[in-house]
Amino acid sequence: MVPEFCIACCYVDFYCLLEVTNCFAFSIFSQTDLAHHNPFSIALKNFGSRPQDKEKDVNVDIHRDGKQMTYMQLEREYLDWLLQMHRMYDEEIDCGEDQPIIVVSPLNKKALGISSEVVRVHQILKRKGLLWKSGQKIKVLKGACTKCHKNNVYATIEHFLLEGFQGDSGGEARIICRPLGIENGCKLSIKGGTPNLDIQDSLSLPISVIDSGMCMPIDDSNWELQLRKQIQKTPSRIELLNAKQCHQLEVDWALPTDLPTHAGQTPPKVIVAVFRPSSFTFSLASNYLDQKDIVKVNLEMSMEVTFRRTKNHQDVELIYAVRIAPSSPSSFKGFHGLYMFPLGVKFPHLFQKAGAYTFSFSAEHSGFPNYKQTIMVVPSEKVGKWELLHDEKFPSYSVRVGSCFPPLSIACYDVYDNQMSFTSFPSLKIKLIMNEDLCIDVVKMKPSLSSDNSVFIIKDVVIESNELDSIRPNYAATLMIYIQDESRSVSVECHVTPGDLHSIKVCSQLPRKQLLPGFVVEFFLGETSIILMPYLCFNDLFGSIHRARPSFLIIFFSGWN
For the residues of 147-212, what is the DSSP string, one character each? Predict the structure, then answer.
């Protein structure tokens, strides 16, 4: 479309291409930097300013398509071409094809691409004989304007804007369109009789995208194809990066996935979450990061960490809650759209308490479900202590020799004070310590485990000893229970008293004389009982009752000691 002219300047042949700018003006210096004082340079600078025959030192010949032209022919052809270009490309838009809505002082004029305080909003516009309408689907090619410099843009026309009132000159014309996948489009509203225009997330494109052929209408089938592609790229769910992917990012660890996780494991310093597109499917290859599997989207993401003693426990404790704003997703190691939540730096001892830790990730107004991952933390394998579980039914332990102790319940705790479960019967040894010099072994007992293997129960512990006189009068003793080995033990403070009546014997140490009524026994042994029987009664063979002559019988009852 741009004419080319060859100018021969003699002394010698010299060829110069006359270039026409987008303002339809000649430019001969944009591509060639000529010597300023050279006669050829002076002749070219003076070209067009006066008739060429006045040039004394340089002869100028003009050729086009191999044919020589005069200066007047060149000037006429150039003016004809210039008028043609103006007719083709300088079409001024004065009005649309429908009744406009006048908006005064619209919101966000910069985003609308206008400078005027008055704008006319049309729904139909005619350009180069073609009608363009609101609701029409269009494709704007890459490079058509500054807002379409990366990819082709598929959009729906919403409005046409014409600056100023009808008849005003110099106003811009804009196309307002909503790109595919954008929900918050341009909003035209009337409140109290006053029109308002808010572009929101729509685009404002210059009308020149139509004139240049960079904007074209598309049919429904093409639109549906692009819509399916768009859906595949839109976020469909939240996922956490696994250990291999975090290693690729050089991020310290990920959430543990091995079940169970033992108490004391160090939590990851950060948790990295991403939005996955609809087209994403888990495979072996997805263990390695790929930007196409991560959606960079303007959405806020939240994380909550809660704790329960057991997975089905009703009481839930909120440990941590944090949000990452839409403008804050990280770009790290060349990957975009990473939501990096700090964890271990804030809670370095998070996994020391056994129970269920639930990590919940959500995005408001996203339309897809929350992502949850529960980490079950079990007690550490390192034993911290053994402890007697006190039973309210037995606030203190007291037993008679030969009788059974109340059941003894013993629990095992790890180094973080979590109650551990028993995987088998531990070895057991019990001793009764009555004083520093007297200790007896207890051999009668029945050990067992609770139904959930969390408590070691010792039943029917029987104390047998004839050494209780050494701990009179309070009969205090200590029951020592050794489990596994004698390095760990549980002590039970108790009282052991004499047992049931075992034997009766007559004391022969009293004076050998007849005991008369009123006789006082001045001494007796130990804690035996004395019964004075004034007479004895017995039946003969014929059923008659006989009474012996008055006398006294002293009987001593002694327990088993």
Answer: GGSSS-EEEEEEEEEEESSTT-SS--EEEEEEETT--S--EEEEETTEEEEE-TT-EEEETHHHHT
